[in-house]
Amino acid sequence: MEALSATGHTFIPQLEIAAAFHGVPIRAHLDLTLIRSNPQPCIQVWELKSNQRLPETLYTANEVQLYGQIGLLHACWNRPCFSVRDASGHLVLSRKTFQEAAYQLFQIDLPDSPEQIAVEGYVLSVAMSDAKAFGPYPPDRNMLGVCLRTAATLWQTMQTVATGSLSLDDVPTCQGFHPLCDWCDANGDCPKFKPVCQDGEPIALDDEYAEYLAQLTQLKERKRSLEGDIAEMEDALRSAWHRLTSAASSQSPGWIAAGNYRFKTAAVPGRSTLDQTMLKEEVTKLTHDEQATEALLSRCRKTGAQHERLTISPINTKGA
């Protein structure tokens, strides 16, 4: 924030949007909303994510979150849905249109319609030694609809449970493992984790297995940490090689020695993949028969051998 202020950027930290969708209360918090008036008017929403290691591509959950944020800003532009709080959490502005908020905070006149200005969304992933931006993402009506329908389903399920019409054991749960399950305070008795029972009672192993699981979990965490450290050191060496060889007279810079080691970088061809959708379209053009094309592709597909995956998840106890 200090860096943005020092460079003269105009931005709103923690902009809040409160709206309703089919009677369901919706509230979004935008980390940073930059307002640019020159040379071309533009609104940029930045969602900040802290990562141990920068991802190659943006996580789907982050994309959906950003689409919801910029979609709400775009849809609620002329509605009194926007509030701003200071660092202490006190309201600075409450229930303003986005135009009103921009003018009262910065004396910036924005157009009457969001269609008259560029609205963009970005996700900024920040690691200890680097950062990476993903975007821009434009407002998308369909993606906003997905977000609102998901929120409505969650709200309606919560209301049904609160009234006693639905028990917690009957609440639909996501299938498969989700990374957030490890951090959920209510995972101790979550119906998703159905125990293996014997004679009607859940099986609980002794402390020896508990210690074994704890050791395995610690080893996996060390492995992830080491992989992150290795990646950072490799990036540093690649950067050093390019920096040191940029002024080399040779057209093909070689190795650089350091103590008992030498290192260099080399371009490696990207992995070749087959776009099945495009292949299906091209084959269908030749055969003029979509069913025959699908049958042909099915005969050419190979399925790897089935394998087992071990999943370990901590049991969180409320108040612990």
Folded structure, characterized:
The protein is an alpha+beta fold and 320 residues long. Helices cover 36% and strands 22% of the residues. It is built from 7 helices and 11 strands. The strands form 3 sheets. A 7-stranded mixed β-sheet has the order 5-4-1-2-3-6-7. A two-stranded antiparallel ribbon has the order 8-9. Helix 2 packs across helix 4.
User: Which parts are unreliable, with pLDDT below 50 for 5 consecutive residues or more?
Assistant: none
User: What's the Cα radius of gyration?
Assistant: 26 Å
Q: Characterize the largest beta sheet: strand count, sense, and whether it forms a barrel.
A: 7 strands, mixed
Query: Would you count the extended β strands for me?
Result: 11
Helix content: 25-40%
Structural class comes to alpha+beta
Query: What is the average of the pLDDT values?
Result: 88
What order do the SSEs take from the amino end to the carboxyl end, as H and E? Answer: HEEEHEEHEEHEEHEEHH
